[in-house]
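FORM 7B: Structural annotation worksheet

SECTION A. Query
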Amino acid sequence: MKKIIPLYVVLILVVLIVVIFFSLGTSTKMVVVKDGNIKQIPIEMQIGVYQDGDCGMVIDELKDASQVIIKSGKTWFFHDHGGFVRWLEDKEFRDSAKIWVMSRDTKRWIDAKEAFYSRVDETPMGYGFGAYEKNREDFIDFDTMRLRMLRGETLRNPLIRKQLLGK
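SECTION B. Predicted structure
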């Protein structure tokens, strides 16, 4: 009997942990992809409700949020512009998708392909590409941002970081 008691205690702890894990998973209804956005317009997002389609993290601020929408109306959400570039690269709808980014200067949704991008902003994943509606001398366009992201020329790269920030 003395040998069985520790086994029961361990079994009860495992069951308790599993129950807690599943109850947390079902109580949080995160949105990763949303259907029905046929008009391909930005969906009003709430903090803590949407999950990044690339890395899976909860989107807890909107200043670097993005939305990728395809013609069928499916919408994916991202918390760093570099993430949607990476995620979208191997998708068959890459060229036809509508992409919206939150503008840091006007605080509204703008077409990602019309936006201008900083290379040195602090972003959730550390890529550094903040989106802006108004251009400045040191900003880059969408195609340049995309290319630099795919090449790994981001603030996550120590050489690029030192070149851009001096640290």
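SECTION C. Observations
The chain has two domains: 1-28, 33-165. The longest helix spans residues 4-27.

SECTION D. Sign-off
Analyst initials: ____
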